[in-house]
Amino acid sequence: MTATLSILSAGPGVTLQDGGRHGYLRYGITAAGPMDPLAHATANRALGNSLGATALEVSLGGVEVTAEGGPLGIALAGGAFRISLDGTPLPAACALTLRPGSSLAVRAGRAGAWTYLAVAGRLDLPATLGATATHTRSGFGGLDGRALRAGDRLAVAEARPGPGDPHALVAPWLVRPAEEIRVVMGPQDDFFAVDQIAAFLAGPWTVTTKGDRMACFLDGTPLTHAKGYNIVSDGIAMGAIQVPGEGWPIVLMADRQSTGGYPKIATVIGPDLGRLAQAQGGTRIRFRAVDRAEAVAARRSEAASLAGTMALEPLIRTDFSAEFLLGRNLIGGVVDGAGAHAP
Amino acid sequence: MPFPSESPRLLDAGEAALVAEFGTTVDPAIHDRVLALDDALRAAPPEGLRETVPTYRSLMIHYDPLVLDRDDLADRVLALAAAPGAARAGAAVWTLPCCYDPACAEDIGAVAQATGLTVERVAALHAGAEYRVYMYGFAPGFAYLGGLPRELAVSRRATPRPPHPANALLIGGGLAAVGTFPMPTGWYVVGRTPERLYAPHQPDPFPVAVGDTLRFAAIDAATFADLERRAAAGELVAQRREAA
């Protein structure tokens, strides 16, 4: 069955992302892909999709969507966004069926910078170099290489409905405070004196609001270099923390350039990339140096979280809003009766 | 300078990337070693190898640490780097048509002024040299080239200029480059090629490989317009031959 996910409104920076465009860094092609790979994979996993399936990456700008042509299973996972289905609030991580005529609103909440909206089925998009990940700076991927906007309609092949009533996703691994971010030191930590390494690890650093999919900019006491800040350009891994001349660290994220010429003091471990990506502007963080073994163990535990079946929990209502009660009355026909007395 | 020892320096870039560094400078001998290791790894990739990124002086090796153990990878890299270098297979010599007409070479006057050369001499020097593709980076299909004549070694701009045109020949900081996608740049535009280093609809979207040699053949504006039309229709307008 084919259905369509229709964008009713979208703030800036809402893009389509699959697991990333891999294998072309040697030609200067950025991998792109999700800022929070764990949350992206979780949303897909909840619907039985492959972990790297194309999903909407929703920015703080938010999005409102509806289904056309048939019911569409939806899962959301990521930051503590405010989700509502036809005005009824839902948990930030949830699975539901979006029916034609209904609208699902995803708005920034108290914490988190990104959330992922996955659909049950396959978003039918042309691949560029084998991937659908949007890289807006290159104009690649997604829908015409750009962010989504109101009026966009996304065809979903093999569309399936989700649970009859909305359910919460049981994904405790998405609770990840950003205060401590683990790093492996290097590859160019030898460009910094011992006291500067200590200052880097002591922090604290404040995540600025200037960040985007390319990089996370940090504010704090600037670091100094022991032997200049120019290196002959070399490769950049996702999570590399480069320190340019002015001394404020920059963490390079999904849309980073493939190579660069500033020394990289440390690299954020894979499992903490999403943790950092979810830090809203103003969040204070510290870095903690770990060895590779700890980083690999964290990866293993992340992979294990995604390997099992994901539990869904029915919603138990604790607050009965007027809208909710009105909804019940409609079903019971009471409002119809009351309406008979209306002028 | 190349490292005196035969072994590359191994640097971890997190738990999923390993850098094999053969030196710290731009040097064809260092780059040859980077490419030899790249070729050897790609010829028989160990399970868990994700992708490799050759740069001027190092090879970044992305891997899945849940599949490929870092120390096993390091052993393999050191063994391959110690093996006698095989001749590189597949390195090609490309001749790219290049238009140095002022309409295509917006900044050639500024380069002439900075170097004290005439515009014609700048174009002749640029077209007369042979370049090595050291690496791609910065943007899709942005190729860094070594081999710029010393006379053209102007420093980069103090502030970037607005986006250069597509497929621009750039110079700055003693290096040359081909800028495939229009981007703001601190370099100078000295010409344009109708050839595309990124051709998404071709069977091989990236015709020019790292390690290939580039030459430029000067063409006039009318030829440029003609080749530009043919390249836009999907034709390969550069000439390729295997290295001797």
Automatic annotation (TrEMBL), chain A:
Keyword Protease: no
GO molecular function, one term: ATP binding
Gene3D superfamilies linked: Cyclophilin-like
Pfam family, one: CT_A_B
UniProt key word Lyase: yes
Annotated Carboxyltransferase domain residues: 26-305
Stretch forming the signal peptide: none
InterPro entries in UniProt: CT_A_B (IPR003778), Cyclophilin-like_dom_sf (IPR029000), PxpC (IPR052708)
Keywords: ATP-binding, Hydrolase, Lyase, Nucleotide-binding
Annotated SMART domains: AHS2 (SM00797)
PANTHER family documented for this protein: 5-OXOPROLINASE SUBUNIT C
Descriptive protein name: Urea amidolyase
Protein's organism: Methylobacterium platani
From TrEMBL, chain B:
Superkingdom field: Bacteria
Pfam families according to UniProt: CT_C_D
MF terms in GO: ATP binding; hydrolase activity
Assigned keywords, A-Z: ATP-binding, Hydrolase, Nucleotide-binding
Residue span(s) of domain Carboxyltransferase: 8-208
Record-linked PANTHER family: 5-OXOPROLINASE SUBUNIT B
Protein name: Allophanate hydrolase
Provenance organism: Methylobacterium platani
Highest classification ranks of the organism: Bacteria, Pseudomonadati, Pseudomonadota, Alphaproteobacteria, Hyphomicrobiales
